[in-house]
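Quick check before the chapter quiz. The format below is the same one you will see on the exam, so make sure you can read both the input and the output lines.
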Amino acid sequence: MTKPIIGILCGFEAEAIVARKLTPHVACSGAVEALAFQRAEQLVKQGATALVSFGVAGGLDPQLNSEAIIIAKEIAGNDSQRWVCDIGLISRFKTAAPHGLDGAVFGSTHLVPTPAAKKKLHASTGCVIVDMESHVVAQVAAHYNLPFAVLRGVSDSVEDGFPDAALKGLSPDGSTNMNAVYKSLLRNPLQIPALLKLFKHTGIALKQLDAVITKL
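Here is the expected output.
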């Protein structure tokens, strides 16, 4: 069977750098849902015959840390929507990452920034991670009748808050706007420890994902 041409949707450029080791068909949405839909559509128009949601995510399951790899069987969204990931892609990813976990991912339309909000989402959905691209990948793939999957690491655990500076610094093209980061930190310097922790754990998670990508 011919391998599909994989198109990958990420949130930010550091994820895309890793993703491009697998395929040139990579797009960043900058954690903006409307852009995620546009860029996933563009991936299909560029020739992708399968879509993958890739990068780091927020942990919902208390057992997850930045060493974890999630190869989701299912994507959940608002209004109790559920999409089942492609078994062929799952099998391929599992071969490269036999330690990968198969819990569901929640594709959120907005940032879930606090431990309390993460715990509530975990309790209500049973999902183990949350990101802002997976539900878009599922919907666009379903529209074009294409297979889809999720390959994610964990940047922030369920007990970690997501600092506002990190989101403010994310540009629509996925690059980092350091001026926006600095302005947010000047307004609230108490974010600095959380931001440093997020950067550290994101780096660990991306290394884990890189190790998987190089085996695919």
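If your answer matched, good. Helices lie at 13-19, 33-45, 87-96, 115-125, 134-143, 164-168, 178-187, 192-213.
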